């Protein structure tokens, strides 16, 4: 049998080792019958990870340790990965690169390849295949009724060598879903689909019960061009329970998927010392001061030299004043920076909360320090002045030295009062501690519910995981949001129910089909303010924008952190860099917001400084290198005769239409930039070019 051209590769895999938060790049070399090769990369996940939950397609509640009968109760997983096969020739072999990370072998349990359709007849137009119809928990109001989003993925299975106007969708096609208990209220739309490509669209439906449904695709005239039946659809949950299987279906809402960019804020008692040696988190001051408590520890030495041996961490509470905190000024900065949401640290591992913790604890900013409800101030002003900006809260699940956490303590979160770093026979106070019976039931769960129900957080951004009451919280969080008509999310660090994968200081090497969000500080090594960092080391507009675009091209969001002073000021070097990046987004944000990743790849495999993003009506090319007279794209992108290409980066907001051509042999695009001024707004070195689809 002759080799066939291939559309897509699929794999079940797991990486050896305990992976922490980081993914490990693994590469495959595809060789084709014309002797050409393509190298494709995956971001491989370890079968055990931190936090203790995983989000694979196959999950188990434990593993056996070293071939014994002793159980490790961390969740373990096998993951699924898929990628486009980018070639005009038939696939001959797949070679995994040698293992270059000791102890991190890649285990492949299954590989399958989707074949392209044959070239026997291309005159009839594209050959469409419904690859997936997936019930989601996302919804929109249609005529005052919640309509559920069903995500439908459609592929054009013709090989890339069949690329032409005749073999492409080049007008508005619609997708409808029908069945015994489902009705389409807003059809999905496909505007462009070339050979070898695939796209996804939301179909809004009213579904009354679980049933099988039929997906229908119609052309611009309403003529049926294809159907696919037998797709199981599950209606929106009307009540969330603690059932893990039900809770695991919850996903990030549409508003979050479209927002792309948020501001993280680490602000608390640690903002008083505001110090760490390079490569260390300043917000970990309290823990690092005590570990180890001797002269080999730079935190210990710094504290002794700066404050003396008689000052303990809780003495800093009085100096956490928030005296210059202005919620309106913060929100204006976030808005002008181009952010669509923010996440404020409501309580870090030191246990000091910036909100009203009620009878669970008096260790908060209302009873101590500023004597103000800082979360309420920021949230209330956001609702009044920036109602379009979504509000989130970071929440540490454990507390380092809370005496009530001792029964649950582990690793660097042991619980129990800290021994004085300089007088080890003495125990340090835990100011504001309230006597309770159980940390999880009487503190952790009530505080999380307070943030959800009293403050109205839309993002519960947990940290560390560990012992928890997350299923109980999640059911109430989701039900409360559903009753209020809002859509909310949690990250993967709440100890259960992974919804959003959140690596730190890492941009992944490949597209992730599961939604993810990288988070990192404006500081190269810290989230909390570190006065030991030179301002020149902060991320500038170029780094911010290039990171944002790279992450978004791989289906991620970017949560960029600032660390205010103890008085509540976001210092000028941080603010200025945010505002410069915001100028770029004000001009070129159409190539970031509301976009999604391109099925055929996040970037040009030859020129690795190009990133690709799509919307139903446009295709974006963002270059991280300044083009000269031409922009050369070594990929067959979905552009057809009659389409317009515009440059979005003009500082005055003008869109410049550009001439372009496609090589008839390779299908590669060249854009003529002669005479175009390429000084980007805000000085960010990223140049956005948008293809506007025309019929």
TrEMBL record:
SMART domains membership: Alpha_L_fucos (SM00812)
Domain Glycoside hydrolase family 29 N-terminal residue range list: 241-589
Gene Ontology molecular functions: alpha-L-fucosidase activity
E.C. numbers: 3.2.1.51
Keyword terms of this UniProt record: Glycosidase, Hydrolase, Signal
GO terms, biological process: fucose metabolic process; glycoside catabolic process
UniProt-listed PANTHER family: ALPHA-L-FUCOSIDASE (PTHR10030), ALPHA-L-FUCOSIDASE-RELATED (PTHR10030:SF37)
Family from the record: Belongs to the glycosyl hydrolase 29 family.
Functional summary from the UniProt entry: Alpha-L-fucosidase is responsible for hydrolyzing the alpha-1,6-linked fucose joined to the reducing-end N-acetylglucosamine of the carbohydrate moieties of glycoproteins.
Protein name: alpha-L-fucosidase
Native organism: Gloeophyllum trabeum (strain ATCC 11539 / FP-39264 / Madison 617) (Brown rot fungus)
